[in-house]
Amino acid sequence: MANKPSQPPSPGPDNGTGIWRSAAALGLIAVLGTGVLALVHEVTRERIAEQEQRTMSRQLNEILDRRSYDNSLHEDVVTVRDATAFPGGQTVRVYRARRDGEPVAAVLWLGAPDGYNGWIDLLVGVTWDGVVTGVRVTWHNETPGLGDGIETARSDWVHAFAGRSLSDPPPARWKVRKEGGDFDQFTGATITPRAVVNAVARALAWFGEHRDTLFARPAEESAESAS
């Protein structure tokens, strides 16, 4: 008579111990993962902040002659909100340049909310008497080959703002040529340059009206320093 095949021992009643062990293991893994991420963030945060400040310093120096001021722009920052001048609910950061304690210029970091594909970030440098020292685009999502002509790597278009003011040309001509203004548009793209021209004009108008109170305000901690 053949022997009956052996059977594995019964696991016994399931009292939920296995489930709790699995849950505890998953919880431990989650805690360890969070801890590792926090550690990596802490280690790299200062390095990232330093890199961001170096990038911003380079861009600021491209549009504002370093010899024209003797203070630290990163330590002389204020933020402003003006829904009329700066639409889109934005907070504008203003880097103030001084020489021997006297105001000489400012760089406004603001946005043009009405680009073809949405938001365009700009740096606009302006002297105390309202002359543009330079404009740079720091971020955009415009169409490659069309709207990306606002980048200095793609064209010299933004250099046309340097030396301009609201008297050259007058406010009514701060438009693209297609709309009767003095600024070129791109072939097949009008919305992107229009947005930048309008943003620069708004910055000039706002600065001319508020420069005295702007430079009288105490400095705030810049976002780069706070990172």
From TrEMBL:
Residues 115-207 form the FMN-binding domain. InterPro entries: FMN-bd, Ion_transpt_RnfG/RsxG. Its EC number is 7.-.-.-. The modification FMN phosphoryl threonine is found at T190. Belongs to the RnfG family. Part of a membrane-bound complex that couples electron transfer with translocation of ions across the membrane. This is Ion-translocating oxidoreductase complex subunit G. It comes from Elongatibacter sediminis.
